[in-house]
Amino acid sequence: MSGLTVKNLNFSYGSHHILKDVAFDTLQKGQLTALIGPNAAGKSTLFKCIAGLNTSRDSSVTLNDTDLSTLSGQERLRRVCFMPQFFAANAALTVFDVVMMAQKQLRGWRVSDDDTKAVARALDAGGIGHLAEAYVGELSGGQAQMVSVVQALVRQSEAYLFDEPTSALDLRHQLQVLSRIREAIKNRDAIGMVALHDLNLAAHFADHLILIGKGEILAQGRPDEVLRDPKIAEIYGVDIELSTGPREDLLVHAYAS
């Protein structure tokens, strides 16, 4: 079946269990799913397991009818694009260089005119064309995060996993980045997952929410369904109220318990 399905996923660091029998409904092509939950809930670990960076025994991770465990590491990286929470690149490289490396990843290293044009378009589309010749070591945290998003979106993958892609950004850039991610997922008919802390951003941009807490999936479904689930308030340790904004969008109000 098309889409991304996870079943029976467990992962531990030594004796410390991080993920416990994680499973969720098949994520559909062209839709963006927000993975929400407090710090240390297991969001990053789940993404690493799906991408194949962490190994989980006896689990089932299926992407578009393919059991990902049957693929080579290289092929799995080609089909699943994972953007980690923290940007890492050689400080002596330029922004253009690191995006070109993502453009050429797993496809040889001979750079063509088409590659150069594709990277230039990606930088412009990501709003960082002016940073093309800047060195990575000179970037602010927010600029580095925007470069990381462009690195991910320049690749042509079947599934994209973004681990907190807006944590270092101001409000305007948060909205722009999530708009670009959602548009790319829809236009490419790909599967998208984004880990977010901001529940209002999740409500606004996601088609589907998955709530994770203490390594377990606690709720999943449409944003209005999940955000009304009592487990939200319980796992975050706050009181939650929902209202509808002037544009008929769902607004989340959180209060300290």
**Structural class per helix/strand content?**
alpha/beta
SSE topology string: EEEHEEHEHHHEHEHEEHHEE
Rg over CA atoms, rounded to whole Å, is 18 Å
| Main sheet overview | 6 strands, mixed
- Strand arrangement in the largest pleated sheet: 6-7-8-3-9-10
Helix content: 25-40%
Shape annotation:
globular
User: What proportion strand?
Assistant: 25-35%
Distance between the termini: 43 Å
The strand count comes to 12
Overall residue-averaged pLDDT value: 94
Low-confidence stretches: none
Per DSSP, the total helix count is: 9
Descriptive terms for the model:
257 residues, alpha/beta, four-stranded antiparallel beta sheet
Give the SSE map.
Layout: E1 4-13, E2 16-27, E3 32-36, H1 43-51, E4 60-63, E5 66-67, H2 73-79, E6 80-83, H3 95-104, H4 113-125, H5 141-153, E7 159-163, H6 171-188, E8 191-196, H7 199-205, E9 208-213, E10 216-221, H8 223-227, H9 230-236, E11 238-244, E12 250-256
Parallel strand pairs: 3-8, 3-9, 6-7, 7-8
Antiparallel strand pairs: 1-2, 1-4, 4-5, 9-10, 11-12
Helix pairs in contact: 3-4, 3-5
Describe this structure in words.
The protein has 257 residues and is an alpha/beta fold. It has nine helices and twelve strands. It has helices at 43-51, 73-79, 95-104, 113-125, 141-153, 171-188, 199-205, 223-227, 230-236, and strands at residues 4-13, 16-27, 32-36, 60-63, 66-67, 80-83, 159-163, 191-196, 208-213, 216-221, 238-244, 250-256. The strands form three sheets. The protein has a six-stranded mixed beta sheet, with helices on both faces. A four-stranded antiparallel beta sheet has the order 2-1-4-5, with helices on one face. Strands 11-12 form a two-stranded antiparallel ribbon. Helix 3 (95-104) packs across helix 4 (113-125). The longest helix has 18 residues, at 171-188. The protein is globular. The mean pLDDT is 94.
